[in-house]
Amino acid sequence: MEPVAVGLVGAGPWAEMAHAPMLARGRLAGVWARRPESAARLGAPVFERIEELFDACEAVAFSVPPAVQAELGVLAARAGKALLLEKPLADSLDNAQRLADAVAEAGVASQMVLTMRYAPQTRAFLARCGEIQAFGATPRTSPAPSSATTPSPPRGGSSAARCSTSART
């Protein structure tokens, strides 16, 4: 089975560091960017018009600012392309809704790329946060408190502070 041909929109540092190397493991169909000379560094065909990129691929990955992603994502969805979207989705709730509506209307697949979600340090951080009891929460192993008692605050500062600390270690 042939890998899906994916076009890349954007050629900035994040595209160069994260998206292009990952997509090159499969089938990077080409790149479109405002600056073609930047796109040329990514080692894939460079398209001058975004519509030409859409013609060459089955899916589109985005590595552009949120406002640009929202606008061009609508065009890609209307062109029938599956979308690999960066976070944040858009620069406003209205633009995010417009993109979500275009995806739904076109019936194309879309996925939010969480590049570092499965990195070991991210997984360790999330596991640590899962162990922290929220301020004022009832301990998970204790019975629910009666209305006459108030749970004690957790030791060691706020859960947000402890999560921030664990992220640095």
From TrEMBL:
Gene3D superfamilies the record matches: NAD(P)-binding Rossmann-like Domain
Region listing for Disordered, in residue ranges: 136-169
InterPro entries per UniProt: Gfo/Idh/MocA-like_OxRdtase_N, Gfo/Idh/MocA_oxidrdct_glycsds, NAD(P)-bd_dom_sf
Domain called Gfo/Idh/MocA-like oxidoreductase N-terminal: residue spans: 5-109
Pfam families in the record: GFO_IDH_MocA
Keywords (A to Z) from UniProt: Oxidoreductase
Annotated SUPFAM superfamilies: NAD(P)-binding Rossmann-fold domains (SSF51735)
Protein's UniProt keywords contain Oxidoreductase: yes
Superkingdom of origin organism: Bacteria
PANTHER family: BCDNA.GH03377
This protein's name: Gfo/Idh/MocA family protein
